[in-house]
Amino acid sequence: MPLSHKGSFAASIKGALKRGRLPEEVGRTLELHRAERILAHAPTRGGSYAVATSTALHLPAGEAAPGFVRLPWDRIEHASWKDGWLHVYEPGGRAEHHVRLIEPGSVPETVRERVTSTVVVDHQGRLAEGGRVRIVGRRGAGGDELHWAFVFEPGLDAEDPGLRAQAEELLADLRRQTGL
């Protein structure tokens, strides 16, 4: 192989590796916790990045507020990937994030794996009036404590004290059965 080809091959490899790196200015903007490492990242349509780390998903805060929204994996109720969009939902309908990824790379798979890995218990319970509640116990990255959440089926009032009390009783039974 002529030398000029070797040089252009080396340059193309170097360029590919450089393209795979998170731009330094984006890395400086991220507020990473101690020992938090970047697993995957993807450019967004708005010119920012979605960054999946060992402990959280960092999404662009938006045009009005530069920077990132940090979502620990155990604080994401669910996420989906469809038609180039990453959809991320926080528990109880608190917030939704919809981000268009230009080159998704492994971000969608990393998000799915990380969110799923936090689920320790996922149990369907029947309430006295015949409705259902999903009880989910999740553990954060590197933590021992479980965070419990109730997801009531559509049509039930999650703020109803009677339903909450029933769900708490179901959780107490579940914890006794599992030892958690």
Q: Care to describe what's here?
A:
With 180 residues, the protein is α+β, with helices and mostly antiparallel strands. The protein has helices at residues 3-19, 24-29, 107-117, 161-178; strands at 38-43, 49-53, 56-60, 68-72, 78-82, 85-89, 96-100, 119-126, 132-139, 146-152. The strands form 3 sheets. A 4-stranded antiparallel β-sheet has the order 1-2-3-4, with helices on one face. The chain has a 3-stranded antiparallel β-sheet with strand order 5-6-7, covered by helices on one side. Strands 8-9-10 form a 3-stranded antiparallel β-sheet. The longest helix is centred in the last third of the chain and has 18 residues, at 161-178. It starts with a helix and ends with a helix.
CA radius of gyration: 21 Å
Proportion in β-strands = 25-35%
The helix fraction, in percent, is 25-40%
> Count of DSSP E strands?
10
Envelope shape: elongated
Q: Tell me, rounded to a whole number, the average pLDDT.
A: 84
Tags for this model:
single chain; 29% helix; three-stranded antiparallel sheet; elongated; alpha+beta; 180 residues; 10 strands; disordered N terminus; 33% strand; 4 helices
Concise account of the structure shown:
With 180 residues, the protein is of the alpha+beta class.
Topology of helices and strands:
Blueprint: H1 3-19, H2 24-29, E1 38-43, E2 49-53, E3 56-60, E4 68-72, E5 78-82, E6 85-89, E7 96-100, H3 107-117, E8 119-126, E9 132-139, E10 146-152, H4 161-178
Antiparallel strand pairs: 1-2, 2-3, 3-4, 5-6, 6-7, 8-9, 9-10
